[in-house]
Amino acid sequence: MSGGEPSDIFTSRGIAADVRDARGYRRYAAKATAAVLKIEPRFYPHRGWLRQALTVPGWLMPKYAPMPEHPVFGAAPIAQLRPDAPVFPEWYGHDHDGMRHLAASDTSLADRAGVCFCGIKHNGVPRRRRGPRASEPAEYWAAKRWRAARLDAWEQRPLADRALHEAKVCEVEQVVHEGRPVTRVVPSGHIVDRAGEYLIDGHLRYCEAGEVVIPTKGPHRHVKRAKYLFSPGEGAKRLDTHPSVRAAGYAAPEGLFVWCIEGTLKLDSIVSAGWPGVETGSVTLWRIQGEDYEAEWNPEASVFEGGTLYYDELADFAERYLRGVPTAVVCDSDWYLNHRVREQTEAAAALLEENGVPAIACAPPEGEFLYRHPVTDWPVHAKQGIDDYLAGLPQRERHDSFLDLLVREHTPDEAPGLENAVARASLAGVRADAAATLRKLLCALGEIATSDGLVPYKRAWLSNRIGRAPRNVDNARDRAVELGLMRLITEPERIATDTGWRTKPGILLLERDLVRPRTATTLRDWLNQRLHG
Asked: Can you name the residues that pair with 277 across neighbouring β-strands?
């Protein structure tokens, strides 16, 4: 199956030729539906999805079940597609000018007889839907105000959230323009042409790092595309390994096993550096759980025997191969400032610990400095994955340098500003019991906040964590906001999905000295401590 010249995705990611060949990556051409189905017939029920996925050439990435004799997880995971350019452009339009749409929530509408600034009098929360494909922009904008809701219900976000929003919608990359390197800030809301160039009003725009090129007034659009494709359904939530690792029985001769939580190519770069491991497709695809089944693994006989085990591929794999084996859970370098990546990676390590596996979350160092975050004023660096990190090193150094990945563990010390914050509350007349609740809340938030102080406000989780009723947690948060200890950056958002409503938590920004300090060490230090005490 051919598809033009192979792209450089392997050498640029530090993947050795023998590792690439052993996995069996297959090149496909654009619109080669029949050829792809011949290799992966399990795509057949999703032929419509497949035709859209094959609009550009790319690579088919086979997956391998870590436990092929398992009664539930024995079948190989469905192969993944990696097109040469992002596909499936879905886009939606909105504006974020700081207004709210309901007269009940925006008193300035009273003088307008309740008529919103968008020109409509709303009896309920206005809703938006994802627009048509990127090929239909004119039709979308013509009908923008009148489309019925399908996915998200929303009220306009406040101005503070606008700045946070603008800080996240750019992709930043280094390019060479007119013979000199510049940083191109790419608005995700604009169309990509066939050559993969990002267009703004039909022209390329280059700018220095940090220059905002996102429209902040009036309606604009955002485009979401995908470059790593799983077929529809639950098939993405599976463990994958490399054939050579499976053939070796998941042996860790140097005392370290690796769980790469960010994808197949990254695992193969780790294997190319000489470390055994498994992978999951992304930081959100590792909770592989379901119904009970009748079986129990007997390690002495190497068979499953009668009994009830939970339908959990990761727990079963850990039980069979990783118990007592130090394991590194590896994510991308953006875990410093992306609370979701950090939470998921640390939760994955905690799950291994619960199953008798000594585990640690780690990541490569950050890339070069790009700009300062417009909300937190924290320095933002280019994201670096483990494949980027290893590929940037000489081949002979990659194995040993893998142990230089960064581990960030909490120090035993409390946040430096914690006691001062509690004292400020007492001076402001806060009762002793309320001050104690405030202290517990600040401790919990400071522990899970990112380096720049951003933290999601998950009321139910916080209530359980600090042992206080939800209303008391809310009261403590409100006191902290009044005292200037934190501010609300993003309002909670109620989102409609195919399975019902869910609430996206609001984001708080803590004072910097309320973030619990972490010590940056290396995977090498952690492993030496585990192996040698």
From this structure: 258
61 closest CA partner among 109, 96, 93, 13: 13
Domain shared by 46 and 191, yes or no: no
Domain limits at 447? 418-516
| DSSP annotation string for 244-291 | HHHHTTT--TTS-EEEESS-HHHHHHHHHTT--EEE-SSTTS---B--
Question: Which tokens go with 181?
Answer: 């390197």
Sign of CA dihedral 11, 15, 18, 20: negative
Q: The whole model's pTM is what?
A: 0.74
- Same-domain status, 286 and 256: yes
The answer to whether residues 476 and 397 touch, using CB atoms and an 8 Å cutoff, is no
Q: How many domains does the chain have?
A: 3
User: Is there a single domain that holds both residue 79 and residue 170?
Assistant: no
Cα–Cα distance for residue pair 153/396, rounded to 1 Å: 54
Contacts of 384 (CB under 8 A, 6+ apart): 332, 333, 364, 365, 366, 367
What three-state secondary structure class fits 247?
helix
Q: Are residues 156 and 116 in the same domain?
A: yes
* Length in residues, the chain: 533
pLDDT digits (tens, 9 = 90+) for 326-364: 999 999 998 988 888 888 898 899 989 988 999 999 999
CA dihedral angle for residue 252, residue 256, residue 261, residue 267, rounded to 10 degrees: -50
- Residue 384 reports pLDDT greater than 60: yes
Instruction: Note whether 266 and 279 are within 8 A (CB).
Output: yes
Q: Which of left, alpha, beta for 180 (phi over 0: left; psi -120 to 50: alpha)?
A: beta
